[in-house]
C-alpha cells in the first residue's frame, strides 16, 4: 500500500478554465454585437428549458469578484476566452474600444493578483453577421479571424504570455454544421467538412497574425478535444469503425497541424460528400506552421461498433459525416450527469498517442472535469464524485509525465457553474457553485480540494486504497 502523495514537477501549471459566452452575460453591454449563440439560444427548442446566455454567471460585471475568488483559491493561471463580437460586433472592421477595454481590465486584475492569463481567441461565439455571410463555410471567415487576432494581440500582447487560437474546432464544425446540436444549428455534412478546413485555416492565419504583433517570448497554441476511440467488440467491422471515427475526431485535425496533410483515408471516406476542392495549395503550409504547445480537452472515452443490418437506420442528422453505419456504445461503469462514462484511461491513451505519433510538442490539459447533480446545502456542496474524477485523471497526468510525456499543465473545467451550451443551466461543471437568481458564489468541496492540490503541487493518495 502506497499512501504517499504524488508530486508534480516544479513549475507545473495549475489553472481553471471558462468560456466567454458561458459565464459573461452582458450580452448587449458596451457595444457587443450578437453571436451565433445569442441567435441559437433564443431560437425555440434549441436549448434546454429555453435558457440563454444573456446573463449567465454575470462575470462581465463581476469579474473582479471572480478574480479575487481565484486568488483566494491560489490559482496560478486562468484560461478564459475573448468574445469576438465584443471586439468586432459584426466580425469585421475596427475594434470596439469598450470591448477591448474590458479584457484589458480583466488581464490587469489577474496580473495584480499574481494570476497568469491564458487567452483563447475563439470559443464558439462567431459574430452573427459573419454567419449570415456564410460562417465557417467560407474562406473569408478565416481571414476575418486573423484580423480579429491581430486586434486583440496588439492590445494585450504585452501582458498575456499564452495565446490559444481556437477551442475544439471539431465541435464548431460538426456539432455546429452537421448535427445542428450547437450554433449555428445547420445540418449539412459537406458544409461541416468545409467548416473544419476553414477553422484550421483560421488557426494558421491567426497564428501568423499573432506572431507579427506578439513578443517573441509569447506562446501560441490550439486546443483540440481529442478522443480515445476504442472498439466495443472484437471484429473487423468494429476496427474499421474505430478508424473512421478516429479519422474525423482526431486525425482530421492532428495530421494537417503536425504533418501538413489531411488523412488519405478520411478524404476517401468522405469523397461522396465533397471533393475537398476548397483546400487550396498553400493552405496546408499555413495550417502546419509551428506552434509552441498543444492544448488537449478530455472528458470521456468513445466506444464504437457498426449498426446491425437488421436495425432501422438512425434518424436525424449526425455529427459524423459518412458514418451512418457506426454505432456508439455506452461503456459500462459509472457516468457523470451528462451520461458520459468515467474512464481516466482514455486520457492516458490520448496524451501518449500524441506524444508517440506526432511532432514532439509540450502538451497542456486545457479542460478536464465533470458535471454531477450538485446540491447546495447549509454546509456547502459535497461533490465527492467530482473530486474522485479529478483525482483519477490527475493520476494519469502524473503517470504520463513520469513516462516522458512533456505535459506541463492542467486546467480544471470549470471554475464556475455556467451556461452549458444546449443543456442550458441544467448541468453544473463548476468547482464553484453559482446560484443564478442571486449570482452568489459558493465553493464546492472540490474547490477546497483543488486549492490543496495547488498548494502542495501534488495529489493525495486515493482514500479507497488506504
UniProtKB/TrEMBL annotation:
List, alphabetically, the SUPFAM superfamilies matched.
Answer: (Trans)glycosidases (SSF51445)
One GO term (biological process): cellulose catabolic process
Q: Which InterPro entries does the record associate with it?
A: GH, GH_1_N_CS, Glyco_hydro_1, Glyco_hydro_1_beta-glucosidase
- Which keywords does UniProt give here? Carbohydrate metabolism, Cellulose degradation, Glycosidase, Hydrolase, Polysaccharide degradation
Enzyme Commission (EC) number: 3.2.1.21
Pfam families registered for this protein in UniProt: Glyco_hydro_1 (PF00232)
Q: What's in the GO CC field?
A: cytosol
* Active site (catalytic residues): 168 (proton donor), 367 (nucleophile)
> What top-tier enzyme class does this entry carry?
hydrolase
What are the GO MF terms of this UniProt record? beta-glucosidase activity
Sequence positions that bind substrate: 22, 123, 167, 299, 413, 420-421
Reactions that this protein is recorded to catalyse: Hydrolysis of terminal, non-reducing beta-D-glucosyl residues with release of beta-D-glucose
Q: Which family does it belong to?
A: Belongs to the glycosyl hydrolase 1 family.
Q: Supply the PANTHER family for this chain.
A: GLYCOSYL HYDROLASE, LP05116P
Q: What is this protein called?
A: Beta-glucosidase
* Annotated source species: Actinophytocola algeriensis
From the broadest rank down, the organism's phylogenetic lineage runs: Bacteria, Bacillati, Actinomycetota, Actinomycetes, Pseudonocardiales
Amino acid at each position: 500500500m502506497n499512501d504517499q502523495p504524488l508530486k508534480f514537477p516544479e513549475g507545473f501549471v495549475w489553472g481553471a478554465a471558462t468560456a466567454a459566452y458561458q459565464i459573461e452575460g452582458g450580452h448587449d453591454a458596451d457595444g457587443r454585437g450578437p453571436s451565433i449563440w445569442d441567435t441559437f439560444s433564443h431560437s425555440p427548442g434549441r436549448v434546454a428549458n429555453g435558457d440563454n446566455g444573456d446573463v449567465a454567471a454575470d462575470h462581465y460585471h463581476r469579474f473582479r469578484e471572480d478574480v479575487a475568488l481565484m486568488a483566494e483559491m491560489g490559482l496560478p493561471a486562468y484560461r478564459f476566452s475573448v468574445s469576438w463580437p465584443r471586439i468586432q460586433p459584426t466580425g469585421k472592421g475596427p475594434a470596439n474600444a469598450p470591448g477591448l477595454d474590458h479584457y484589458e481590465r480583466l488581464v490587469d486584475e489577474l496580473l495584480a493578483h499574481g494570476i497568469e492569463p491564458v487567452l483563447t481567441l475563439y470559443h464558439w461565439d462567431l459574430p452573427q453577421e459573419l454567419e449570415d455571410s456564410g460562417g465557417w463555410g467560407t474562406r473569408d471567415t478565416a481571414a476575418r479571424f486573423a484580423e480579429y487576432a491581430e486586434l486583440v494581440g496588439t492590445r494585450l500582447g504585452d501582458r498575456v504570455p499564452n495565446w490559444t487560437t481556437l477551442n475544439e474546432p471539431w465541435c464548431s464544425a460538426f456539432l455546429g454544421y452537421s448535427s445542428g446540436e450547437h450554433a449555428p444549428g445547420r445540418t449539412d455534412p459537406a458544409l461541416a467538412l468545409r467548416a473544419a478546413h476553414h477553422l484550421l485555416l483560421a488557426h494558421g492565419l491567426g497564428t501568423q497574425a499573432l506572431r507579427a504583433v506578439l513578443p517573441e517570448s509569447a506562446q501560441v497554441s490550439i486546443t483540440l478535444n481529442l478522443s480515445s476511440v476504442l472498439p466495443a467488440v472484437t471484429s473487423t467491422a468494429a476496427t474499421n469503425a474505430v478508424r473512421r471515427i478516429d479519422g474525423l475526431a482526431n486525425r482530421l485535425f492532428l495530421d494537417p497541424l503536425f504533418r501538413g496533410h489531411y488523412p488519405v483515408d478520411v478524404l476517401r471516406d468522405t469523397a461522396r460528400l465533397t471533393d475537398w476542392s476548397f483546400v487550396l495549395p498553400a493552405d496546408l503550409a499555413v495550417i502546419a506552421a509551428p506552434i509552441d504547445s498543444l492544448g488537449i480537452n478530455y472528458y470521456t472515452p468513445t466506444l464504437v461498433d457498426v449498426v446491425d443490418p437488421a436495425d432501422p437506420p438512425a434518424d436525424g442528422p449526425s455529427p459524423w459525416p459518412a458514418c451512418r453505419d457506426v454505432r456508439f456504445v455506452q461503456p459500462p461503469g459509472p457516468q457523470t450527469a451528462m451520461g458520459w462514462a468515467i474512464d481516466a484511461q482514455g486520457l492516458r491513451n490520448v496524451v501518449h498517442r500524441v506524444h508517440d505519433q506526432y511532432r514532439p510538442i509540450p502538451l497542456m490539459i486545457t479542460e478536464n472535469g465533470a458535471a454531477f447533480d450538485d446540491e447546495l446545502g447549509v454546509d456547502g456542496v459535497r461533490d465527492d464524485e467530482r473530486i474522485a474524477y479529478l483525482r483519477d485523471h490527475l493520476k494519469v497526468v502524473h503517470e504520463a509525465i513520469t513516462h516522458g510525456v512533456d505535459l506541463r499543465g492542467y486546467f480544471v473545467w470549470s471554475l464556475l457553474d455556467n451556461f452549458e451550451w444546449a443543456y442550458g443551466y441544467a448541468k453544473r461543471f463548476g468547482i464553484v457553485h453559482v446560484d443564478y437568481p442571486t449570482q452568489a458564489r459558493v465553493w464546492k468541496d472540490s474547490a477546497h480540494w483543488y486549492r490543496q492540490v495547488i498548494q502542495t503541487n501534488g495529489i493525495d493518495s486515493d482514500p479507497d486504497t488506504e
